[in-house]
Specification:
Number of helices: 8
Number of domains: 2
Largest sheet: 2 strands, antiparallel
Shape: globular
Length: 236
């Protein structure tokens, strides 16, 4: 009886220790899981600091970094970014809403597309005008005002003012578009300009990737244009 009792006591102690170990292990797993979830939430919050703005709020649409220029083209540029990169700090945004800190050159980060007709592919779209790396390289060679050169290589800064400068010069290039975009805008033909540009900026009204902002673009443009015209008149 004594031996049996001792064995039972030992067995109960071993079982208790095992239960304690299991409880400790469960608590450890729970703590690790909680920590991982918190880290993921923090990373997600950091990556989306530039929250999407509400439509038709011209006061919240960031101004251009470039100075001067045709107010009609300037208003168009801001309207393009309303559907392409509608974030508080659009110049550093890459596809998906994450931001980059180094704008000394195009980020050239290929991010997987999660929706739309190109779902599953990856895109290097970046900046206020969501330039693909190949498009930026092509247009910067032609329109960038201050490339840096080392021997035979040229670098094209992706700084905000240069993003603006390249797009402004591109939109002003009547030969490229086979149209005078500024004149069309002055004639009130915004829809025609939308059709002209939708092959390049596919969320601009007649493209393949319209979004929640697309339908509001004519009204947004009209509001921003008044703001840009007022600024231009004050500088005269």
């Amino acid at each position: 009886m004594t031996r049996i009792r001792v064995k039972r006591v030992r067995h109960s102690k071993i079982s208790w220790f095992r239960r304690s170990e299991v409880q400790v292990l469960k608590r450890l797993i729970l703590s690790i899981s909680t920590a991982v979830i918190l880290i993921l939430l923090l990373l997600n919050w950091h990556g989306n600091e530039g929250l999407i703005l509400e439509p038709n709020t011209k006061s919240k649409l960031p101004p251009l970094m470039m100075k001067g220029g045709d107010p009609y083209i300037r208003a168009l540029m801001r309207t393009i970014s309303a559907s392409e990169s509608n974030f508080a700090q659009p110049y550093s945004v890459i596809y998906g809403g994450d931001r980059v800190s180094d704008l000394s050159r195009h980020p050239n980060l290929c991010v997987k597309i999660v929706s739309g007709p190109n779902k599953g592919d990856c895109t290097t779209a970046a900046g206020r005008y969501q330039f693909l790396s190949s498009t930026w390289e092509e247009k910067a060679k032609k329109y960038h005002p201050e490339p840096t050169q080392f021997l035979f290589w040229k670098e094209y800064s992706f700084a905000p003012e240069f993003q603006d400068a390249v797009v402004y010069a591109w939109l002003s290039d009547r030969k490229f578009w086979k149209a005078d975009i500024s004149q069309l805008l002055k004639q009130g033909k915004f829809n025609q300009v939308q059709r002209l540009l939708s092959g390049t900026w596919t969320s601009f009204g007649y493209g393949i990737e319209n979004n929640s902002m697309t339908g509001d673009l004519p009204e947004i443009y009209a509001e921003i244009l008044q703001e840009e015209l007022q600024k231009a008149s004050q500088k005269r």
